[in-house]
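__Record contents__

***
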Amino acid sequence: MLPMQGSGAGQAIEDAYTLSHLLLRSLQDNIPIHRVTEAYSKGRLPLANLVIQKSREVAETLTFHTPEYEGINNADDGSVKRLLERMAAEYPALYDWMEDISVDEEVEKALKML
């Protein structure tokens, strides 16, 4: 997990929460463990990949490694100041995607895969 989203600990908690629900259901309904691990992987992997993608985007933005920052230099023409002002305005939007995620909805999807 890349460090730019600060999501590692949260992902671990959500993973444990999801896995506990899947394991409980498998015990209640006598579902084989391989189906639990398959549902867990199919349910959690897309979100984990999204976190990695978004973390990379944040890292590229914060370290000026995107095409829009090419050609920006330390010249005193105001370009750096304008760039930083734009970054400050746009930075919160880099995390908007998190509001669309519900761990309970993700658990329900995984449970339906059992």
